[in-house]
Design a protein that fits this description.
about 475 residues, Butyryl-CoA Dehydrogenase, subunit A, domain 3, alpha+beta, binds fe (iii) ion
């Protein structure tokens, strides 16, 4: 099976062994059909369905460099700057269609970063990580896996190195070594789509020193491996998905799709040799982290732009329902939202177009421009959301629940007082307001705002990279030359 569709993907999740998932105080026996989890699965399923959709097949698929087969782009090693741009375009389309985080990008970004880093490690150390990883990629392509790219450790006391922590488990580390492999312990936080994945590709979270060798581990384990427990992230308005009233979907805002964040605990999980791709080569942690982060910072110039398109569409629609679509300040605000959103897209395309071939053969984005992209993403979606809330008016937080629409008595009153222009019915106006609530304060706000701030690294992480790559000395020379000041 090289190219699954959405329902085959969902079936493949059912075929995994039992997972230990805790959500709202309960151990969830069947995560696939849980209403809160299912919405997040639907978002990932879109990445499979669109690969079979004539309108999107070209952007959603690629030719495997290993087998020549047609594969899903999420399993692909980028072979050109055009591939890098197509990745961003694909993410924009998925953001537009899901209105949230579709989760599968982290694995794609990890595949490309581990691919190039293992090659570089082998060149120096004479190890065989790259060949092992190639075998792993073959399986990824063959099974069309969704991979959880596992990077962020909980980190404990941020002022201390991994090896200095009072409890070393706050960083994933090797606790046992044998001829067969290693045993790892620790946790990864903020794991996007972890429960919806087939595999976890674990990477170190920061540049390590010699004393941090046990923490320098890159490896893969199946999602149902013995010893893994998932603590499902509680998110704003999640209980609305449990509402079984006939019109309950209205209150969800975006009933079909959602994102997912988890704390994943690895409690003595065995990793066989063939799934280990870095083991103690501390000097390569920085390279792996920087390249993974760059790929993922590029990703945000696609996915958040697609969701931004939905926000702009919601702003224009609610303005019509409110009867103010013709007002010049509304048109100006829509223009500003578009300007901000397309600036983010420009950054995503630019860091892709300026990408380069790596020694391993895949393409890497321009790291400075990818960091500029993500730095803008930590800001512009907040302004786009502010403008959307401005245009929407305050009704999206004072609007009565869908249950009031089910009761004919109360519905009459709501229809009378919450009606707007002839452009939409009262129910349509409420649906749009709930979508706006979802995008800017509800579940999708996790994907659109909090992820924009902290996903792929918080703003300061990008500023460190921008500072490192900005080559101020060269710029000083330019200024001095024009001012005729000798060096
Ligand atoms: Fe993909 Fe965006 Fe979600 Fe990251 S935040 S996994 S790039 S959709
Ligand atoms: Fe993310």
């Amino acid at each position: 099976m090289t190219l699954m569709n959405g329902s085959e993907y969902i079936d493949s999740l059912r075929k995994r062994g039992p997972l230990n998932v805790f959500l709202l105080g309960e151990k969830i026996e069947n995560p696939v059909d849980h209403p809160i989890i299912r919405a997040s699965i639907n978002s990932v399923a879109l990445t499979y369905d669109l690969a079979h959709d004539d309108a999107h097949r070209e952007i959603m698929t690629a030719e495997s460099v290993i087998t020549g087969n047609t594969i899903n782009r999420f399993c692909h090693l980028h072979q050109s700057t055009e591939d890098l741009q197509n990745k961003v375009k694909m993410q924009r389309v998925l953001g537009q269609k899901s209105g949230t985080c579709f989760q599968r990008c982290v694995g794609m970004d990890a595949l490309n970063a581990v691919f190039l880093t293992t090659y570089e490690i082998d060149e120096i150390h004479g190890t065989d990580y790259h060949q092992r990883f190639l075998e792993y990629i073959k399986l990824t392509e063959k099974h069309d896996w969704t991979i959880d790219g596992c990077m962020t450790d909980p980190k404990g006391d941020r002022g201390k190195r991994p090896s200095e922590q009072q409890d070393p488990d706050v960083y994933v580390h090797v606790v046992k070594r044998s001829d067969e492999g290693v045993v790892i312990r620790g946790a990864k936080a903020h794991q996007t789509g972890a429960v919806n994945s087939h595999e976890h590709l674990i990477m170190p979270t920061l540049a390590m020193r010699n004393e941090d060798k046990d923490f320098t581990i890159c490896c893969a384990v199946p999602a149902d491996a013995k010893g893994i427990t998932y603590y499902y992230g509680r998110q704003s308005c999640d209980l609305r998905r449990l509402d079984e009233s006939a019109m309950g979907d209205i209150d969800c805002g975006n009933p079909a799709y959602g994102g997912q964040e988890c704390l994943v605990v690895f409690d003595d999980v065995f990793v066989p040799h063939e799934r280990i791709f870095m083991n103690g080569e501390t000097e390569f942690c920085g390279r792996l982290v920087d390249t993974f982060a760059a790929y993922h910072r590029q990703s945000y110039g696609g996915c958040k732009v697609g969701v931004g398109d939905v926000l702009i569409g919601a702003a224009a629609t609610i303005a019509e329902y409110n009867g103010v679509a013709g007002a010049s300040h509304i048109r100006d605000k829509l223009t500003e939202m578009t300007h901000l959103n397309e600036t983010l897209y420009s950054c995503g395309i630019a860091c892709s177009a300026a990408g380069n071939k790596t020694a391993a053969g895949n393409y890497l984005v321009d790291i400075l421009l990818a960091n500029i992209c993500k730095q803008n993403v930590t800001r512009f979606p907040y302004e786009i959301s502010r403008l959307l809330q401005d245009i929407a008016g305050g009704l999206f937080v004072t609007c009565p629940s869908a249950k009031e629409m089910e009761n004919p008595e109360t519905r009459k009153v709501i229809e009378k007082y919450l009606s707007g222009s002839d452009a939409g019915t009262t129910e349509e106006r409420i649906k749009m307001l709930r979508l706006i609530e979802n995008l800017t304060m509800g579940r999708a706000a996790v994907g659109y705002l909090t992820e924009s701030m902290h996903g792929a690294g918080s703003p300061q992480a990008q500023r460190i990279m921008i500072n490192r790559l900005s080559d101020i000395d060269e710029k000083k020379k330019l200024a001095k030359k024009l001012a005729r000041i000798p060096e």
